Amino acid sequence: MERPFGVTILAILGVIGGILELSIGAWFTSVALSSETRANWEAAEYVPGMIGVLAAVFFVISIVLIISGPITFVVACGLWFGQGWAWTVSLILTILGLIASIISLIAIVGIVPLIIYIIILYYLTRPHVKAFFGKGRARGACGVRIY
Questions:
Q1: CA distance 4 to 128
Q2: Does residue 43 register a pLDDT over 90?
Q3: Which of 17, 50, 109, 128 is the S-S candidate for 104 at Cβ 3.0 to 4.6 Å?
Q4: For the chain, what percent of residues have pLDDT higher than 70?
Q5: 110 — phi, psi (to 5°)?
Q6: pLDDT reported for residue 30
């Protein structure tokens, strides 16, 4: 079965996301470990004792991003090749993102991520997309099954 165009888009966005995660993770690491950054924070007169906490938070964020970057690449590769597990992982992450978007909407952050997650969730559950990942059977015109 030919890969649906939307799956190609999701896979490419996954690769771009993985690159961004690794890049931002490297930046957070450099900020967390930089003595110059700590000097700037001290010069800005942050609350005493908070500089170490800020550095630790930046470092934890960097570790999460550096770990999630390669995972994002693997999932994007799975999407590209129609692996069923990649569809499942994408669906789970989309649902978690949808929940986070609803929570952020309550906090009046924005509706755009919520709309994006709803579109992705809708798309991943279309019969032809599920069939590409071996999660269902594609349907042709008038609902006739394609085997």
A1: 8
A2: no
A3: 109
A4: 80
A5: 160, 160
A6: 84
What is d(CA 20, CA 70) in angstroms, rounded to the nearest whole number?
11
Main-chain dihedrals φ then ψ at residue 4, nearest 5 degrees: -65, 145
The CA-atom distances, in angstroms, between 60 and each of 41, 56, 145 are 18, 6, 49
User: What is the structure's pLDDT at 81?
Assistant: 95
Tokens describing residue 74? 């693997």
Residue type at 132 in one-letter notation? F
Which two structure tokens, joined as six digits, stand for 39? 């000097």
Tokens at residue 10, please? 């999701």
More confident residue, 94 or 41: 94
- Please give the angle made by the CA atoms of 48, 51 and 57, to the nearest 5 degrees: 140
Instruction: Please state, in angstroms and rounded to a whole number, the distance separating the CA atoms of residues 129 and 138.
Output: 8
Q: Cα–Cα distance between 3 and 83 in angstroms, integer?
A: 11
Separation of alpha carbons 1 and 3, rounded Å: 6
Please report which helix (H) or strand (E) contains residue 68, including its range. helix 50-80
- Cα-Cα-Cα-Cα dihedral of 97, 6, 14, 120, to 10°? 0
